[in-house]
Write a structure and sequence with these properties.
Layout lengths: L4 H13 L3 E9 L9 H16 L2 H12 L3 E8 L11 H18 L3 E8 L6 H15 L4 E9 L3 E3 H17 L11 E5 L20 E8 L1 H9 L6 H30 L2 E9 L9 H7 L10 H19 L8 E2 L7 H8 L5 H7 L7 E7 L4 H18 L3 E8 L7 E3 L6 E3 L9 H5 L3 E2 L9
Parallel strand pairs: 1-2, 2-3, 3-4, 4-6, 7-8, 8-9, 10-11
Antiparallel strand pairs: 1-7, 4-5, 5-14, 6-11, 12-13
Helix pairs in contact: 2-4, 3-8, 4-5, 5-6, 6-13, 7-8, 7-9, 8-10
Length: 453
């Protein structure tokens, strides 16, 4: 593939001035062959395989950074959903698996390991129940392990028993990590239509349809997109969309290059490039600021959802033209605590929970890194999850909730998480209850358009 001097100069500028980076190189590892009759033997086999497969992941990524001059911010691992590995284990034994995964993450040097997960959209197995019950304690005893639970799909409907239980578990995880503002909840995601090849945390897991070992790359660049659309101020929406598409194409080509190189060096199959505009707390690296550059005075004002829809679609179209294997969640993330523009919009009152929910109908994933008062009930948390999962189910898209009920804090307070997680302003929640609705249990049936066979 020929790359001109001008393209090289553009890429250097995007890296140095516009926060362009490879957000993550994530190695997915199949662990189904590690299952043994005894959980201790399973843990030993899991540790050995992860360390063997990923021992060169961090060094090789660092070498690519040096040789290509492209920042790779995170190096991560995703594994087969852990509920498929634990058999008839107790929650306490599941925690031992989590601690083994933590040990493997430390040994390989990755910043996160995802896949302490269960897929329960149609119902629980005994292993699912044990693993999900262990999540709060597993998070307390680890710092790099990420959890996800898929509670709904367009084909299956919504498992409302799981939605109810996740509200309780999220509240428990928040209370157990009260000293850090409920920070354990930042490593729990509740999904609808969870993708099997997502390289981003906290929702990454290695699906059962994936190869033995695969490299998935997540690219980001909100700052690059914002700088590009600054140059077409006042132009119509066709010009705006074309500008975003062309910019997304350039970003994705860089991701494709890194993905192929990493796959070759690590002896793993190239999976996908996920072109997601994933913001950080850094000024100039914000999805909210892109929306405002389009002409919306403050993210959350009328027009915000339409602007985000245009952005998400144009990013995907540009990415698809640049790589044969675009996957994961590709589009735009709107996490509140990880986006300085979103944080400011919440603080000024321009952005509320209900508007964020509307935006999730057209964004890449869903309600992400939302901090709510610590006194919200478990049923209210479940109600928020149910609403978001319903959007995913009916619209045949991935949606997710990462919500943090901050113990002892109220609307207007701010929680400092640090690093990529940033700081989270506590958002108000509708005071009216949904306890009786959540208590019904059972399953919400799949929508009529799921009957496609």
């Amino acid at each position: 593939m020929f790359i001109s001097v001008d393209e090289i100069a553009q890429t250097i500028r995007m890296i140095q001035e516009e926060h362009l980076d490879i957000r993550t190189v994530t190695m997915g590892i199949n662990l189904l062959d590690c299952v043994r009759a005894d959980i201790k033997d399973t843990c030993d086999a899991v540790y050995e395989k992860i360390c063997r497969k990923a021992e060169r992941l961090v060094p090789e990524c660092e070498a690519i950074e040096r040789e290509m001059g492209i920042p790779i911010v995170n190096k991560r691992i995703s594994i087969t959903p852990a509920a498929l590995l634990v058999g008839r284990s107790t929650p306490e034994q599941c925690v031992e698996l989590a601690k083994t995964l933590e040990k493997a993450a430390v040994n390989t040097g990755v910043n996160f390991l995802g896949g302490y997960s269960a897929l329960v959209h149609k119902g629980y197995t005994e292993a699912d129940k044990a693993l999900i019950a262990s999540i709060p304690q597993a998070l307390m005893e680890t710092s790099r392990i990420c959890c996800s639970v898929n509670v709904g799909t367009t084909k299956a409907g919504i498992n409302m028993d799981a939605v109810r239980d996740m509200g309780v578990l999220i509240k428990k995880a928040a209370e157990m990590s009260a000293e850090t503002g409920g920070s354990s909840c930042a490593r729990i995601v509740v999904f609808a239509n969870a993708p099997e090849d997502n390289p981003f945390m906290a929702g990454a897991f290695h699906g059962v349809g994936e190869p033995e070992c695969v490299i998935n790359v997540g690219v980001s660049g909100p700052g690059v997109v914002k700088c590009a659309i600054e140059k077409v101020k006042g132009e119509d929406f066709t010009v705006l969309a074309e500008t975003i598409k062309k910019t997304a194409f350039k970003i994705t080509r860089m991701g494709q290059l890194v993905a192929k190189e990493a796959s070759q060096r690590l002896g793993a199959q190239f999976g996908i490039v996920d072109l997601s505009l994933a913001p950080t707390p850094a000024v100039g690296d914000s999805v909210a600021r892109i929306i405002e550059e389009m002409g919306v005075e403050r993210c959350g004002a009328p027009g915000t959802t339409a602007a985000l829809a245009l952005l998400n679609d144009a990013v995907k179209k540009g990415g698809v033209m640049a790589s044969s294997h675009v996957g994961g969640l590709s589009g735009a993330f709107i996490p509140v605590s990880e986006d300085e523009g979103m944080i400011e919009a919440v603080k000024t009152g321009a952005l509320c929970l209900e508007k964020l929910e509307a935006m999730t109908c057209v964004c890449s994933v869903g309600l992400d890194m939302i901090v709510v008062p610590g006194d919200v009930t478990a049923a209210t948390v479940s109600g928020i999850i149910a609403d978001e999962v319903a959007i995913g189910m009916v619209n045949n898209k991935t949606t997710a909730v990462r919500i943090i009920p901050a113990p002892g804090l109220k609307e207007g307070d701010v929680v400092e998480f640090g690093g990529l997680l940033g700081s989270g302003p506590v958002m108000p929640v509708n005071p009216y209850k949904s306890d009786a609705f959540i208590a019904r249990g059972g399953r919400i049936p799949a929508p009529i358009h799921s009957l496609r066979n």
